[in-house]
């Protein structure tokens, strides 16, 4: 079931490609509170201007293609994204390899204009196309004992020059609690600005969890595993003091090496000013109930 | 101070190179060395540094500072082990390193952090910034005493004072290595390079590797 969550602008408002490259003003954001049945955008509406195609496709962290921000744009061209299949296994009714074309034929693609906040204190606004992760998981049938979802990125050294270096323990892995994974804001993106997802942005299929730091939104996913134990995650394995399992965007909990209170919006040039970071990246209304009673300083 | 005693080396290639170097005026090194800063700034303003020019400019200026520090540290080993004489340029290399550290700091303060309260918090709370800041502070006395008058006035003290550059280079390389996410290649090249250049100054290094030393008699330069 698609359209559980609504931008105030949705698929109906998609502008022809020539126009949105001019950075039109887009109204998007908090309305709907994650419940599509709520009629009309009665609550706060915010101006979200998506970053340009150039911004979004030339400033990426995808260490499998190098640690420089432009390395993915320069090196990801060689990545073969078709054919592609995603293995869904673990605590599911129908484990197996799901072909990308089959998945797409069963999903409804919608546009989601989300803020993206990197743990490095920069941010963008991205007009994703994709479907809810909940719908993909429903294909495989989540068994009742499952509590967590683990994700794995493709590991293909011959097409990924960055994995020659032990920057991280390859392959890249991430994880969510099942309720986070099933939240209507959590999507699997397949496109950008109505076009197929560029390789440097995680083609052909990537996770997008807009209230968490960007590294949680794992790219080029090849495996999804349901389990009853919290799965390991790459950055947490590498530096547990700096990157927690949750990694929710939180301006009051600093990274040990830098402040998370503010962020720089990409695209403002050399004299761009900083803006305050929002709790849960501005999706507090939608997701804070997931963490009721939790100490967010300890569970960073 | 004893560069004038220096008369040459047995290697004709190096000797030719030394002659060539004698014809390069020091002011040219200052100009060519300082040029990247305005070029990078211009690129940043005009979109040539990608979609996030602030970090790009800040990192490039920091990288240039480290590179000039490493070049400065190369002068003595190159002279001692290869017979190449760059001593005339050492002051300019050091001052250019200081110039880039100042610009790097300025970009960080004015364009990057912006919020004054956060600047102090960052310097005190964030080890990699504390370390970078310590490196900058230690460079100030060296820059101030880099003129001929100070060299004369301070005498032996001057040389001892300027050994601070060893500490500064280590702090600079550490500052870089501590700032990156994950185990990245580039900062460790600088750390390794700086450590290697410092090791080459140890007497024990000369003992083990000193067979090939091309050292002109009477030159006791230890910097």
From TrEMBL, chain A:
<comment type="function">
    <text>Part of the MsrPQ system that repairs oxidized periplasmic proteins containing methionine sulfoxide residues (Met-O), using respiratory chain electrons. Thus protects these proteins from oxidative-stress damage caused by reactive species of oxygen and chlorine generated by the host defense mechanisms. MsrPQ is essential for the maintenance of envelope integrity under bleach stress, rescuing a wide series of structurally unrelated periplasmic proteins from methionine oxidation.</text>
</comment>
<keyword id="KW-0479">Metal-binding</keyword>
<feature type="binding site">
    <location>
        <begin position="63"/>
        <end position="64"/>
    </location>
    <ligand>
        <name>Mo-molybdopterin</name>
    </ligand>
</feature>
<comment type="similarity">
    <text>Belongs to the MsrP family.</text>
</comment>
<feature type="binding site">
    <location>
        <begin position="217"/>
        <end position="219"/>
    </location>
    <ligand>
        <name>Mo-molybdopterin</name>
    </ligand>
</feature>
<feature type="binding site">
    <location>
        <position position="60"/>
    </location>
    <ligand>
        <name>Mo-molybdopterin</name>
    </ligand>
</feature>
<keyword id="KW-0732">Signal</keyword>
<keyword id="KW-0500">Molybdenum</keyword>
<dbReference type="InterPro" id="IPR036374">
    <property type="entry name" value="OxRdtase_Mopterin-bd_sf"/>
</dbReference>
<feature type="binding site">
    <location>
        <position position="153"/>
    </location>
    <ligand>
        <name>Mo-molybdopterin</name>
    </ligand>
</feature>
<feature type="domain" description="Oxidoreductase molybdopterin-binding">
    <location>
        <begin position="81"/>
        <end position="235"/>
    </location>
</feature>
<dbReference type="GO" id="GO:0030091">
    <property type="term" value="P:protein repair"/>
</dbReference>
<dbReference type="GO" id="GO:0043546">
    <property type="term" value="F:molybdopterin cofactor binding"/>
</dbReference>
<dbReference type="InterPro" id="IPR022867">
    <property type="entry name" value="MsrP"/>
</dbReference>
<dbReference type="InterPro" id="IPR000572">
    <property type="entry name" value="OxRdtase_Mopterin-bd_dom"/>
</dbReference>
<dbReference type="Pfam" id="PF00174">
    <property type="entry name" value="Oxidored_molyb"/>
</dbReference>
<dbReference type="GO" id="GO:0016672">
    <property type="term" value="F:oxidoreductase activity, acting on a sulfur group of donors, quinone or similar compound as acceptor"/>
</dbReference>
<protein>
    <recommendedName>
        <fullName>Protein-methionine-sulfoxide reductase catalytic subunit MsrP</fullName>
        <ecNumber>1.8.5.-</ecNumber>
    </recommendedName>
</protein>
<keyword id="KW-0560">Oxidoreductase</keyword>
<dbReference type="GO" id="GO:0046872">
    <property type="term" value="F:metal ion binding"/>
</dbReference>
<feature type="binding site">
    <location>
        <position position="201"/>
    </location>
    <ligand>
        <name>Mo-molybdopterin</name>
    </ligand>
</feature>
<feature type="binding site">
    <location>
        <position position="206"/>
    </location>
    <ligand>
        <name>Mo-molybdopterin</name>
    </ligand>
</feature>
TrEMBL record, chain B:
<dbReference type="GO" id="GO:0046872">
    <property type="term" value="F:metal ion binding"/>
</dbReference>
<dbReference type="GO" id="GO:0010181">
    <property type="term" value="F:FMN binding"/>
</dbReference>
<keyword id="KW-0288">FMN</keyword>
<feature type="domain" description="Ferric oxidoreductase">
    <location>
        <begin position="61"/>
        <end position="172"/>
    </location>
</feature>
<keyword id="KW-0472">Membrane</keyword>
<feature type="transmembrane region" description="Helical">
    <location>
        <begin position="189"/>
        <end position="213"/>
    </location>
</feature>
<comment type="similarity">
    <text>Belongs to the MsrQ family.</text>
</comment>
<keyword id="KW-0813">Transport</keyword>
<comment type="subunit">
    <text>Heterodimer of a catalytic subunit (MsrP) and a heme-binding subunit (MsrQ).</text>
</comment>
<dbReference type="GO" id="GO:0030091">
    <property type="term" value="P:protein repair"/>
</dbReference>
<dbReference type="GO" id="GO:0009055">
    <property type="term" value="F:electron transfer activity"/>
</dbReference>
<feature type="transmembrane region" description="Helical">
    <location>
        <begin position="93"/>
        <end position="111"/>
    </location>
</feature>
<keyword id="KW-0285">Flavoprotein</keyword>
<keyword id="KW-0349">Heme</keyword>
<protein>
    <recommendedName>
        <fullName>Protein-methionine-sulfoxide reductase heme-binding subunit MsrQ</fullName>
    </recommendedName>
</protein>
<comment type="function">
    <text>Part of the MsrPQ system that repairs oxidized periplasmic proteins containing methionine sulfoxide residues (Met-O), using respiratory chain electrons. Thus protects these proteins from oxidative-stress damage caused by reactive species of oxygen and chlorine generated by the host defense mechanisms. MsrPQ is essential for the maintenance of envelope integrity under bleach stress, rescuing a wide series of structurally unrelated periplasmic proteins from methionine oxidation.</text>
</comment>
<feature type="transmembrane region" description="Helical">
    <location>
        <begin position="20"/>
        <end position="41"/>
    </location>
</feature>
<feature type="transmembrane region" description="Helical">
    <location>
        <begin position="61"/>
        <end position="81"/>
    </location>
</feature>
<keyword id="KW-1133">Transmembrane helix</keyword>
<dbReference type="GO" id="GO:0016679">
    <property type="term" value="F:oxidoreductase activity, acting on diphenols and related substances as donors"/>
</dbReference>
<dbReference type="GO" id="GO:0020037">
    <property type="term" value="F:heme binding"/>
</dbReference>
<keyword id="KW-1003">Cell membrane</keyword>
């Amino acid at each position: 079931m698609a359209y559980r969550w609504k931008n105030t602008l949705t698929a109906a408002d998609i502008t022809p490609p020539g126009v949105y490259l001019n950075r039109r003003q887009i109204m998007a954001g908090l309305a709907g509170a994650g419940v599509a049945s709520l009629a009309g955008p009665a609550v706060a509406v915010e101006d979200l201007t998506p970053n340009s195609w150039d911004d979004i496709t030339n400033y990426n962290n995808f260490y499998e293609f190098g640690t420089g921000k432009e390395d993915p744009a320069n090196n990801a061209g060689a990545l073969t994204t078709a054919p592609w299949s995603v293995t869904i296994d673990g605590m599911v009714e129908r484990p197996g390899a799901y072909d990308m074309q089959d998945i797409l034929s069963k999903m409804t693609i919608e546009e989601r204009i989300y803020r993206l906040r990197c743990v490095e204190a920069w941010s963008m606004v991205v007009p994703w196309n994709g479907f809810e992760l909940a719908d993909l998981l429903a294909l495989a049938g989540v068994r009742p004992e499952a509590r967590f979802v683990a994700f794995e990125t493709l590991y293909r050294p011959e097409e990924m020059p960055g994995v020659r270096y032990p920057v991280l323990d390859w392959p890249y892995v991430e994880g969510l609690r099942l309720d986070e994974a099933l939240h209507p804001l959590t999507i699997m993106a397949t496109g950008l600005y109505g076009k197929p997802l560029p390789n440097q942005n995680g083609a052909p299929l990537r996770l997008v969890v807009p209230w968490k730091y960007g590294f949680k939104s794992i790219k080029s996913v090849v495996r999804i595993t349901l389990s009853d134990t919290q799965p390991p995650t790459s950055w947490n394995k590498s530096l547990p003091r700096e990157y927690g399992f949750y990694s929710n965007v939180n301006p009051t909990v600093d990274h040990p090496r830098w402040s998370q209170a503010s962020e720089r919006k990409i695209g403002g040039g050399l004299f761009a000013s900083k803006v305050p970071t929002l709790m849960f990246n501005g999706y507090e209304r939608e997701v804070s109930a997931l963490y009721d009673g939790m100490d967010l300083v300890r569970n960073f | 101070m004893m560069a004038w005693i220096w008369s040459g080396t047995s290697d004709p290639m190096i000797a030719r190179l030394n002659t060539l170097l004698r014809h390069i005026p020091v002011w040219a090194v200052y100009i060519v060395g300082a040029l990247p800063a305005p070029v990078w700034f211009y690129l940043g303003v005009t979109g040539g540094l990608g979609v996030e020019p602030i970090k790009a400019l800040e990192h490039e200026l920091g990288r240039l500072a480290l590179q000039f520090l490493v070049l400065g540290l190369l002068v003595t080993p190159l002279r001692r082990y290869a017979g190449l004489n760059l001593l005339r340029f050492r002051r300019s290399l050091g001052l250019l390193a200081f110039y880039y550290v100042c610009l790097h700091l300025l970009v960080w303060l004015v364009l990057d952090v912006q919020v004054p309260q956060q600047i102090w918090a960052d310097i005190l709370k964030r080890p990699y910034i504390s370390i970078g800041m310590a490196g900058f502070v230690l460079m100030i006395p060296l820059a101030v005493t880099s003129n001929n008058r100070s060299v004369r006035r301070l005498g032996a003290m001057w040389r001892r004072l300027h050994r601070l550059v060893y500490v500064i280079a280590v702090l600079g390389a550490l500052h870089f290595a501590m700032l990156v996410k994950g185990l990245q290649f580039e900062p460790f090249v600088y750390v390794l390079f700086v450590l290697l250049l410092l090791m080459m100054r140890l007497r024990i290094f000369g003992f083990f590797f000193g067979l090939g030393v091309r050292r002109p008699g009477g030159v006791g330069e230890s910097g």
